[in-house]
Protein backbone atom coordinates (compact mmCIF):
# COMPACT_ATOMS: atom_id res chain seq x y z
CA UNK A 1 0.00 0.00 0.00
CA UNK A 2 1.34 3.42 -0.87
CA UNK A 3 -0.62 6.40 0.32
CA UNK A 4 1.08 8.98 -1.81
CA UNK A 5 0.91 7.14 -5.12
CA UNK A 6 -2.69 5.99 -4.50
CA UNK A 7 -3.66 9.55 -3.59
CA UNK A 8 -2.02 10.75 -6.80
CA UNK A 9 -3.96 8.14 -8.76
CA UNK A 10 -7.19 9.47 -7.34
CA UNK A 11 -6.28 13.11 -7.85
CA UNK A 12 -5.45 12.42 -11.51
CA UNK A 13 -8.78 10.62 -11.95
CA UNK A 14 -10.66 13.53 -10.34
CA UNK A 15 -8.83 16.05 -12.49
CA UNK A 16 -9.89 14.12 -15.61
CA UNK A 17 -13.43 13.80 -14.26
CA UNK A 18 -13.65 17.56 -13.81
CA UNK A 19 -12.13 18.25 -17.23
CA UNK A 20 -14.45 15.82 -19.05
CA UNK A 21 -17.40 17.38 -17.22
CA UNK A 22 -16.45 20.96 -18.07
CA UNK A 23 -15.81 20.12 -21.71
CA UNK A 24 -19.03 18.10 -21.86
CA UNK A 25 -17.37 15.12 -23.47
CA UNK A 26 -19.19 12.79 -21.07
CA UNK A 27 -22.89 12.77 -20.15
CA UNK A 28 -23.91 14.71 -17.06
CA UNK A 29 -25.75 11.66 -15.75
CA UNK A 30 -25.33 7.97 -16.48
CA UNK A 31 -27.93 5.98 -14.57
CA UNK A 32 -27.07 2.40 -15.42
CA UNK A 33 -29.06 -0.28 -13.59
CA UNK A 34 -27.81 -1.07 -10.09
CA UNK A 35 -26.79 -4.67 -10.86
CA UNK A 36 -24.80 -3.55 -13.90
CA UNK A 37 -22.90 -0.99 -11.81
CA UNK A 38 -22.13 -3.55 -9.10
CA UNK A 39 -20.90 -6.00 -11.77
CA UNK A 40 -18.87 -3.47 -13.73
CA UNK A 41 -17.20 -2.19 -10.57
CA UNK A 42 -16.28 -5.82 -9.80
CA UNK A 43 -17.34 -5.29 -6.22
CA UNK A 44 -17.72 -8.97 -5.41
CA UNK A 45 -14.22 -9.92 -6.58
CA UNK A 46 -12.61 -6.90 -4.98
CA UNK A 47 -14.29 -7.54 -1.62
CA UNK A 48 -13.05 -11.14 -1.65
CA UNK A 49 -9.56 -10.50 -2.91
CA UNK A 50 -8.74 -7.07 -1.48
CA UNK A 51 -5.64 -5.56 -3.04
CA UNK A 52 -7.43 -2.47 -4.29
CA UNK A 53 -4.35 -0.39 -4.82
CA UNK A 54 -2.16 0.94 -7.66
CA UNK A 55 -3.49 -0.05 -11.06
CA UNK A 56 -6.55 -1.82 -9.60
CA UNK A 57 -7.45 1.37 -7.77
CA UNK A 58 -6.99 3.44 -10.93
CA UNK A 59 -9.30 1.12 -12.89
CA UNK A 60 -11.89 1.05 -10.14
CA UNK A 61 -11.90 4.85 -9.74
CA UNK A 62 -12.23 5.46 -13.48
CA UNK A 63 -15.20 3.09 -13.66
CA UNK A 64 -16.74 4.53 -10.48
CA UNK A 65 -16.54 8.05 -11.86
CA UNK A 66 -18.14 6.94 -15.14
CA UNK A 67 -21.41 6.31 -13.23
CA UNK A 68 -21.06 9.42 -11.09
CA UNK A 69 -23.41 12.35 -11.65
CA UNK A 70 -21.29 15.24 -12.86
CA UNK A 71 -22.01 18.44 -10.95
CA UNK A 72 -19.13 20.20 -12.69
CA UNK A 73 -20.91 19.70 -16.04
CA UNK A 74 -22.59 22.96 -17.18
CA UNK A 75 -25.72 20.94 -18.04
CA UNK A 76 -26.09 19.94 -14.40
CA UNK A 77 -29.26 21.87 -13.53
CA UNK A 78 -30.88 19.53 -11.06
CA UNK A 79 -30.83 19.34 -7.27
CA UNK A 80 -29.66 21.99 -4.82
CA UNK A 81 -26.16 20.55 -4.51
CA UNK A 82 -23.31 23.00 -4.76
CA UNK A 83 -20.39 22.59 -7.14
CA UNK A 84 -17.78 22.12 -4.44
CA UNK A 85 -14.62 24.16 -4.46
CA UNK A 86 -11.65 21.80 -4.50
CA UNK A 87 -10.36 23.34 -1.25
CA UNK A 88 -13.46 22.08 0.52
CA UNK A 89 -12.91 18.63 -1.00
CA UNK A 90 -9.36 18.69 0.34
CA UNK A 91 -10.92 19.50 3.71
CA UNK A 92 -12.94 16.28 3.37
CA UNK A 93 -9.67 14.44 2.77
CA UNK A 94 -8.02 15.93 5.86
CA UNK A 95 -11.16 15.13 7.86
CA UNK A 96 -11.31 11.54 6.63
CA UNK A 97 -7.63 10.96 7.16
CA UNK A 98 -7.40 12.44 10.66
CA UNK A 99 -10.85 11.18 11.72
CA UNK A 100 -11.23 13.57 14.63
CA UNK A 101 -14.81 13.07 15.83
CA UNK A 102 -14.68 16.58 17.23
CA UNK A 103 -17.96 16.96 19.17
CA UNK A 104 -15.86 16.79 22.31
CA UNK A 105 -12.92 19.13 22.27
CA UNK A 106 -10.30 16.51 23.12
CA UNK A 107 -11.30 14.60 19.97
CA UNK A 108 -10.39 17.46 17.67
CA UNK A 109 -9.18 20.75 19.14
CA UNK A 110 -8.42 22.18 15.69
CA UNK A 111 -11.73 21.04 14.20
CA UNK A 112 -13.75 22.33 17.17
CA UNK A 113 -11.96 25.69 17.19
CA UNK A 114 -12.48 26.17 13.45
CA UNK A 115 -16.17 25.26 13.84
CA UNK A 116 -16.54 27.73 16.72
CA UNK A 117 -14.94 30.44 14.59
CA UNK A 118 -17.06 29.65 11.51
CA UNK A 119 -20.29 29.60 13.53
CA UNK A 120 -19.33 33.06 14.77
CA UNK A 121 -18.65 34.18 11.20
CA UNK A 122 -22.14 33.04 10.17
CA UNK A 123 -23.74 34.63 13.26
CA UNK A 124 -22.19 37.95 12.29
CA UNK A 125 -23.58 37.65 8.76
CA UNK A 126 -27.07 37.34 10.28
CA UNK A 127 -26.46 40.36 12.49
CA UNK A 128 -26.24 38.38 15.74
CA UNK A 129 -23.59 38.69 18.44
CA UNK A 130 -20.87 36.06 18.11
CA UNK A 131 -19.93 33.83 21.05
CA UNK A 132 -16.95 34.95 23.14
CA UNK A 133 -13.59 33.35 22.54
CA UNK A 134 -12.86 33.59 26.27
CA UNK A 135 -14.87 30.55 27.33
CA UNK A 136 -15.28 31.64 30.95
CA UNK A 137 -17.66 34.31 29.59
CA UNK A 138 -20.00 31.58 28.28
CA UNK A 139 -21.64 31.28 31.68
CA UNK A 140 -22.14 35.02 32.09
CA UNK A 141 -25.45 36.84 31.72
CA UNK A 142 -24.20 38.42 28.54
CA UNK A 143 -26.45 37.92 25.49
CA UNK A 144 -24.81 36.38 22.45
CA UNK A 145 -25.68 33.95 19.71
CA UNK A 146 -24.69 30.34 19.34
CA UNK A 147 -24.87 27.44 17.00
CA UNK A 148 -23.35 24.26 15.74
CA UNK A 149 -22.67 22.63 12.42
CA UNK A 150 -24.71 19.53 11.68
CA UNK A 151 -24.90 16.87 9.01
CA UNK A 152 -27.60 18.43 6.87
CA UNK A 153 -30.51 20.84 6.84
CA UNK A 154 -33.08 18.20 7.79
CA UNK A 155 -31.10 17.48 10.92
CA UNK A 156 -30.81 21.21 11.65
CA UNK A 157 -34.56 21.77 11.20
CA UNK A 158 -35.27 18.94 13.63
CA UNK A 159 -32.77 20.34 16.14
CA UNK A 160 -34.29 23.82 15.88
CA UNK A 161 -37.77 22.47 16.55
CA UNK A 162 -36.48 20.43 19.49
CA UNK A 163 -34.95 23.63 20.86
CA UNK A 164 -38.27 25.46 20.35
CA UNK A 165 -40.11 22.71 22.23
CA UNK A 166 -37.60 22.74 25.07
CA UNK A 167 -38.31 26.44 25.49
CA UNK A 168 -42.09 26.18 25.66
CA UNK A 169 -42.26 22.75 27.33
CA UNK A 170 -39.01 22.01 29.16
CA UNK A 171 -40.64 19.07 30.91
CA UNK A 172 -40.69 17.18 27.60
CA UNK A 173 -37.40 15.33 28.12
CA UNK A 174 -38.77 13.64 31.24
CA UNK A 175 -42.46 13.42 30.52
CA UNK A 176 -42.70 13.13 26.74
CA UNK A 177 -44.18 15.55 24.26
CA UNK A 178 -47.28 17.49 25.41
CA UNK A 179 -50.29 16.91 23.18
CA UNK A 180 -51.21 20.55 22.74
CA UNK A 181 -48.20 21.84 20.78
CA UNK A 182 -48.49 22.88 17.15
CA UNK A 183 -46.24 24.32 14.47
CA UNK A 184 -47.34 26.98 11.95
CA UNK A 185 -45.80 26.63 8.50
CA UNK A 186 -46.60 27.19 4.84
CA UNK A 187 -47.56 24.13 2.78
CA UNK A 188 -44.38 24.66 0.77
CA UNK A 189 -42.08 24.06 3.73
CA UNK A 190 -39.46 21.37 3.25
CA UNK A 191 -40.69 17.88 4.04
CA UNK A 192 -38.15 17.64 6.84
CA UNK A 193 -40.35 19.98 8.91
CA UNK A 194 -43.28 17.57 8.75
CA UNK A 195 -40.94 14.68 9.33
CA UNK A 196 -39.49 16.46 12.38
CA UNK A 197 -43.00 16.76 13.84
CA UNK A 198 -43.41 13.02 13.30
CA UNK A 199 -40.03 12.17 14.83
CA UNK A 200 -40.75 14.41 17.83
CA UNK A 201 -43.91 12.44 18.56
CA UNK A 202 -46.12 15.44 17.81
CA UNK A 203 -47.69 13.85 14.76
CA UNK A 204 -47.92 15.43 11.36
CA UNK A 205 -51.36 16.83 12.24
CA UNK A 206 -49.57 19.23 14.55
CA UNK A 207 -48.67 21.26 11.48
CA UNK A 208 -51.15 24.11 10.96
CA UNK A 209 -50.79 25.40 7.41
CA UNK A 210 -50.48 29.14 6.86
CA UNK A 211 -52.18 30.99 4.02
CA UNK A 212 -49.89 31.75 1.12
CA UNK A 213 -50.00 33.93 -1.99
CA UNK A 214 -49.83 32.68 -5.58
CA UNK A 215 -46.04 32.27 -5.26
CA UNK A 216 -46.38 30.18 -2.12
CA UNK A 217 -45.11 32.92 0.22
CA UNK A 218 -46.72 33.37 3.66
CA UNK A 219 -49.28 36.20 3.79
CA UNK A 220 -48.39 37.94 7.06
CA UNK A 221 -51.79 39.47 7.76
CA UNK A 222 -53.43 36.07 7.48
CA UNK A 223 -51.24 34.41 10.12
CA UNK A 224 -53.55 35.58 12.88
CA UNK A 225 -56.55 33.58 11.64
CA UNK A 226 -54.55 30.33 11.81
CA UNK A 227 -53.17 31.35 15.20
CA UNK A 228 -56.70 32.01 16.48
CA UNK A 229 -57.84 28.65 15.12
CA UNK A 230 -55.02 26.95 17.04
CA UNK A 231 -56.10 28.73 20.21
CA UNK A 232 -59.71 27.72 19.62
CA UNK A 233 -58.48 24.13 19.35
CA UNK A 234 -56.78 24.57 22.75
CA UNK A 235 -53.34 24.34 21.19
CA UNK A 236 -50.14 26.19 22.03
CA UNK A 237 -48.06 27.42 19.09
CA UNK A 238 -44.56 26.04 19.59
CA UNK A 239 -42.96 27.59 16.50
CA UNK A 240 -43.56 29.22 13.16
CA UNK A 241 -41.37 28.01 10.30
CA UNK A 242 -40.69 30.40 7.42
CA UNK A 243 -38.90 29.61 4.16
CA UNK A 244 -35.81 31.43 2.94
CA UNK A 245 -36.35 30.20 0.31
CA UNK A 246 -38.88 27.51 -0.58
CA UNK A 247 -37.56 24.31 -2.10
CA UNK A 248 -39.94 24.02 -5.03
CA UNK A 249 -39.85 27.50 -6.52
CA UNK A 250 -37.25 29.35 -4.45
CA UNK A 251 -39.51 32.01 -2.96
CA UNK A 252 -38.58 33.91 0.23
CA UNK A 253 -41.21 34.50 2.91
CA UNK A 254 -41.50 38.14 4.13
CA UNK A 255 -39.53 37.67 7.35
CA UNK A 256 -39.80 41.22 8.63
CA UNK A 257 -43.57 41.15 8.92
CA UNK A 258 -43.71 37.53 10.06
CA UNK A 259 -41.19 38.29 12.81
CA UNK A 260 -43.37 41.14 14.03
CA UNK A 261 -46.29 38.77 14.53
CA UNK A 262 -44.06 36.22 16.27
CA UNK A 263 -42.67 38.85 18.62
CA UNK A 264 -46.14 40.08 19.53
CA UNK A 265 -47.28 36.57 20.40
CA UNK A 266 -43.98 35.25 21.76
CA UNK A 267 -43.73 32.57 19.08
CA UNK A 268 -40.42 30.93 18.21
CA UNK A 269 -39.56 31.90 14.63
CA UNK A 270 -37.45 29.36 12.79
CA UNK A 271 -36.13 30.42 9.39
CA UNK A 272 -35.41 27.49 7.12
CA UNK A 273 -32.65 29.16 5.13
CA UNK A 274 -31.12 25.86 4.05
CA UNK A 275 -30.97 27.08 0.48
CA UNK A 276 -31.30 30.84 0.61
CA UNK A 277 -29.57 32.07 3.78
CA UNK A 278 -26.38 32.30 1.74
CA UNK A 279 -27.90 35.31 -0.03
CA UNK A 280 -26.84 37.21 3.13
CA UNK A 281 -23.38 37.33 1.57
CA UNK A 282 -24.64 39.13 -1.52
CA UNK A 283 -25.12 42.88 -1.44
CA UNK A 284 -27.56 42.49 -4.35
CA UNK A 285 -29.77 39.78 -2.87
CA UNK A 286 -29.56 40.05 0.91
CA UNK A 287 -32.68 42.22 1.01
CA UNK A 288 -34.65 38.99 0.52
CA UNK A 289 -33.80 38.11 4.12
CA UNK A 290 -34.73 41.43 5.68
CA UNK A 291 -35.80 40.82 9.28
CA UNK A 292 -33.94 37.50 9.66
CA UNK A 293 -32.12 38.84 12.72
CA UNK A 294 -35.44 38.81 14.59
CA UNK A 295 -35.71 35.01 14.26
CA UNK A 296 -34.90 32.61 17.08
CA UNK A 297 -33.16 30.03 14.90
CA UNK A 298 -31.90 29.57 11.36
CA UNK A 299 -30.94 26.56 9.26
CA UNK A 300 -28.21 27.42 6.74
CA UNK A 301 -26.70 24.84 4.39
CA UNK A 302 -23.18 25.61 3.21
CA UNK A 303 -23.40 22.56 0.94
CA UNK A 304 -26.14 24.20 -1.10
CA UNK A 305 -24.87 27.68 -1.95
CA UNK A 306 -21.42 28.06 -0.37
CA UNK A 307 -19.42 25.64 -2.53
CA UNK A 308 -18.76 23.40 0.48
CA UNK A 309 -18.91 19.63 -0.04
CA UNK A 310 -21.68 17.58 1.63
CA UNK A 311 -22.58 17.87 4.38
CA UNK A 312 -22.17 21.17 6.17
CA UNK A 313 -25.18 22.88 7.75
CA UNK A 314 -25.22 25.57 10.38
CA UNK A 315 -27.96 25.67 12.97
CA UNK A 316 -27.75 29.18 14.41
CA UNK A 317 -29.66 30.73 17.32
CA UNK A 318 -29.98 34.34 18.38
CA UNK A 319 -29.40 33.46 22.05
CA UNK A 320 -26.99 30.61 22.77
CA UNK A 321 -29.20 29.50 25.68
CA UNK A 322 -31.79 28.28 23.16
CA UNK A 323 -29.47 25.62 21.85
CA UNK A 324 -27.60 24.96 25.09
CA UNK A 325 -30.91 23.97 26.68
CA UNK A 326 -32.28 22.10 23.68
CA UNK A 327 -31.11 18.66 24.78
CA UNK A 328 -31.45 17.98 28.46
CA UNK A 329 -29.61 14.80 28.80
CA UNK A 330 -26.65 13.36 30.67
CA UNK A 331 -23.89 11.00 29.68
CA UNK A 332 -21.48 11.15 32.57
CA UNK A 333 -18.28 10.38 30.70
CA UNK A 334 -19.00 13.15 28.23
CA UNK A 335 -20.98 15.79 30.01
CA UNK A 336 -19.24 16.32 33.34
CA UNK A 337 -17.94 19.78 34.07
CA UNK A 338 -14.33 19.56 33.10
CA UNK A 339 -11.52 21.95 33.18
CA UNK A 340 -10.51 22.16 29.54
CA UNK A 341 -9.22 24.77 27.15
CA UNK A 342 -11.94 24.32 24.52
CA UNK A 343 -15.63 23.86 23.75
CA UNK A 344 -17.71 20.67 23.47
CA UNK A 345 -20.31 20.90 20.69
CA UNK A 346 -21.86 17.59 21.76
CA UNK A 347 -24.51 19.24 23.92
CA UNK A 348 -25.85 21.15 20.94
CA UNK A 349 -26.35 18.44 18.34
CA UNK A 350 -27.89 15.04 17.84
CA UNK A 351 -24.63 13.60 16.60
CA UNK A 352 -22.17 12.06 19.03
CA UNK A 353 -19.28 11.63 16.61
CA UNK A 354 -19.15 14.44 14.08
CA UNK A 355 -17.01 15.35 11.08
CA UNK A 356 -14.82 18.44 10.83
CA UNK A 357 -17.55 20.30 8.98
CA UNK A 358 -16.21 23.74 9.84
CA UNK A 359 -12.88 22.90 8.24
CA UNK A 360 -14.50 22.28 4.84
CA UNK A 361 -16.41 25.55 5.01
CA UNK A 362 -13.40 27.47 6.26
CA UNK A 363 -11.15 26.19 3.47
CA UNK A 364 -13.66 27.34 0.85
CA UNK A 365 -14.15 30.77 2.39
CA UNK A 366 -10.39 31.01 2.83
CA UNK A 367 -9.81 30.22 -0.85
CA UNK A 368 -12.55 32.37 -2.38
CA UNK A 369 -12.99 35.07 0.22
CA UNK A 370 -16.41 36.48 1.06
CA UNK A 371 -16.38 38.44 -2.20
CA UNK A 372 -15.75 35.27 -4.22
CA UNK A 373 -18.75 33.58 -2.63
CA UNK A 374 -20.91 36.64 -3.18
CA UNK A 375 -19.89 36.61 -6.85
CA UNK A 376 -20.82 32.90 -7.08
CA UNK A 377 -24.32 33.62 -5.73
CA UNK A 378 -24.78 36.69 -7.95
CA UNK A 379 -23.66 34.83 -11.08
CA UNK A 380 -26.03 31.91 -10.48
CA UNK A 381 -28.92 34.25 -9.81
CA UNK A 382 -28.24 36.38 -12.88
CA UNK A 383 -28.09 33.31 -15.14
CA UNK A 384 -31.38 32.10 -13.63
CA UNK A 385 -33.01 35.47 -14.32
CA UNK A 386 -31.69 35.38 -17.90
CA UNK A 387 -33.14 31.89 -18.26
CA UNK A 388 -36.47 33.14 -16.93
CA UNK A 389 -36.56 36.07 -19.40
CA UNK A 390 -35.79 33.73 -22.27
CA UNK A 391 -38.14 30.86 -21.35
CA UNK A 392 -41.07 33.08 -20.43
CA UNK A 393 -40.75 34.87 -23.77
CA UNK A 394 -41.45 31.62 -25.65
CA UNK A 395 -45.12 31.14 -26.54
CA UNK A 396 -45.14 27.42 -25.74
CA UNK A 397 -43.71 27.84 -22.20
CA UNK A 398 -44.97 29.13 -18.84
CA UNK A 399 -43.02 30.05 -15.71
CA UNK A 400 -45.22 30.23 -12.59
CA UNK A 401 -42.84 32.45 -10.58
CA UNK A 402 -40.08 34.93 -11.38
CA UNK A 403 -36.96 33.54 -9.67
CA UNK A 404 -35.71 35.25 -6.53
CA UNK A 405 -32.46 33.29 -6.47
CA UNK A 406 -31.33 30.36 -8.61
CA UNK A 407 -34.39 28.08 -8.77
CA UNK A 408 -36.67 28.25 -11.81
CA UNK A 409 -39.80 26.25 -12.66
CA UNK A 410 -41.38 26.14 -16.09
CA UNK A 411 -43.57 23.96 -18.24
CA UNK A 412 -44.12 23.37 -21.91
CA UNK A 413 -47.77 23.41 -22.98
CA UNK A 414 -49.27 20.02 -22.21
CA UNK A 415 -50.26 17.75 -19.37
CA UNK A 416 -48.49 16.97 -16.10
CA UNK A 417 -47.65 13.60 -17.54
CA UNK A 418 -45.96 15.22 -20.51
CA UNK A 419 -43.57 17.15 -18.23
CA UNK A 420 -42.68 13.92 -16.42
CA UNK A 421 -42.11 12.05 -19.68
CA UNK A 422 -39.89 14.85 -20.96
CA UNK A 423 -37.75 14.78 -17.85
CA UNK A 424 -37.43 10.98 -18.07
CA UNK A 425 -36.25 11.25 -21.69
CA UNK A 426 -33.77 13.99 -20.84
CA UNK A 427 -32.25 11.97 -18.03
CA UNK A 428 -31.99 8.75 -20.00
CA UNK A 429 -30.22 10.61 -22.80
CA UNK A 430 -27.79 12.16 -20.28
CA UNK A 431 -27.25 15.51 -22.02
CA UNK A 432 -28.95 17.45 -19.20
CA UNK A 433 -29.92 16.81 -15.62
CA UNK A 434 -33.08 18.59 -14.49
CA UNK A 435 -35.77 17.90 -11.89
CA UNK A 436 -39.52 18.28 -11.77
CA UNK A 437 -41.87 19.47 -9.05
CA UNK A 438 -45.51 20.00 -8.32
CA UNK A 439 -46.51 23.58 -7.50
CA UNK A 440 -50.11 24.72 -6.91
CA UNK A 441 -51.15 21.24 -8.09
CA UNK A 442 -49.49 21.63 -11.49
CA UNK A 443 -46.43 19.64 -12.59
CA UNK A 444 -43.44 21.73 -13.71
CA UNK A 445 -39.95 21.09 -14.93
CA UNK A 446 -37.47 22.62 -12.49
CA UNK A 447 -33.90 23.79 -12.80
CA UNK A 448 -31.49 24.93 -10.12
CA UNK A 449 -28.59 26.75 -11.66
CA UNK A 450 -25.75 25.70 -9.37
CA UNK A 451 -22.83 25.85 -11.76
CA UNK A 452 -21.30 29.23 -12.71
CA UNK A 453 -20.20 27.64 -16.00
CA UNK A 454 -23.83 27.28 -17.05
CA UNK A 455 -24.86 30.10 -19.38
CA UNK A 456 -27.87 31.10 -21.44
CA UNK A 457 -26.70 28.97 -24.39
CA UNK A 458 -27.00 25.83 -22.29
CA UNK A 459 -30.53 26.88 -21.39
CA UNK A 460 -31.37 27.46 -25.06
CA UNK A 461 -30.04 23.99 -25.91
CA UNK A 462 -32.15 22.50 -23.12
CA UNK A 463 -35.28 24.22 -24.38
CA UNK A 464 -34.61 23.05 -27.93
CA UNK A 465 -34.22 19.51 -26.63
CA UNK A 466 -37.52 19.75 -24.77
CA UNK A 467 -39.27 20.96 -27.93
CA UNK A 468 -37.81 18.10 -29.97
CA UNK A 469 -38.79 15.51 -27.36
CA UNK A 470 -42.33 16.87 -27.25
CA UNK A 471 -42.69 16.78 -31.02
CA UNK A 472 -41.41 13.17 -31.12
CA UNK A 473 -43.77 12.12 -28.37
CA UNK A 474 -46.69 13.35 -30.46
CA UNK A 475 -45.58 11.75 -33.72
C1 LIG B 1 -35.71 24.69 2.32
C2 LIG B 1 -34.99 23.41 2.61
N1 LIG B 1 -34.88 22.98 3.87
C3 LIG B 1 -34.22 21.85 4.20
C4 LIG B 1 -33.67 21.06 3.22
C5 LIG B 1 -32.97 19.79 3.61
O1 LIG B 1 -31.62 19.98 3.64
P1 LIG B 1 -30.60 18.73 3.58
O2 LIG B 1 -30.73 18.15 2.22
O3 LIG B 1 -29.27 19.35 3.84
O4 LIG B 1 -31.02 17.78 4.65
C6 LIG B 1 -33.75 21.45 1.88
C7 LIG B 1 -33.18 20.62 0.81
O5 LIG B 1 -33.49 20.70 -0.32
C8 LIG B 1 -34.42 22.67 1.56
O6 LIG B 1 -34.55 23.10 0.31
Task: Quickly list its features.
binds pyridoxal-5'-phosphate, 7-stranded mixed sheet, Aspartate Aminotransferase, domain 1, alpha/beta, 3 domains, 44% helix, Aspartate Aminotransferase, domain 2, 475 residues
How would you describe this structure to a colleague?
44% of the residues lie in helices and 12% in strands. It is of the alpha/beta class and 475 residues long. The protein folds into 3 domains: 3-69, no CATH class; 94-364, Type I PLP-dependent aspartate aminotransferase-like (Major domain) (Aspartate Aminotransferase, domain 2, 3-Layer(aba) Sandwich), CATH 3.40.640.10; 369-473, Aspartate Aminotransferase, domain 1, CATH 3.90.1150. Helix 11 links the parallel strand 4 (236-243) and strand 5 (268-272). Helix 1 (3-22) runs parallel beside helix 4 (54-66) and helix 6 (109-126) packs parallel to helix 15 (357-392). The chain starts with a helix and ends with a helix. Bound molecules: pyridoxal-5'-phosphate (PLP).
**Could you name the CATH homologous superfamily of the largest domain?**
Type I PLP-dependent aspartate aminotransferase-like (Major domain)
Spans where pLDDT lies below 50 across 5 or more residues:
none
Q: What is the number of beta strands? A: 11
- The rounded distance between the terminal residues' Cα atoms is 58 Å
How is the main sheet built? 7 strands, mixed
CATH class of the largest domain: Alpha Beta
Overall pLDDT, averaged?
96
Total tally of structural domains? 3
| Reported CATH architecture of the largest domain | 3-Layer(aba) Sandwich
Shape: globular
Rg is 24 Å
Query: Which class best fits the helix and strand makeup?
Result: alpha/beta
Tell me roughly what share of residues is in helical segments: 40-55%
- Give the ordered list of helices and strands: HHHHHHEHHEHEHEHEEHEHHHEEHEEH
**Taking strands numbered 1, 2, ... along the chain, how are they ordered across the largest sheet?**
1-7-6-5-4-2-3
Percentage of β-strand residues: 5-15%
- Ligands bound here? pyridoxal-5'-phosphate
Provide the CATH topology of the largest domain.
Answer: Aspartate Aminotransferase, domain 2
What's the number of helices?
Answer: 17
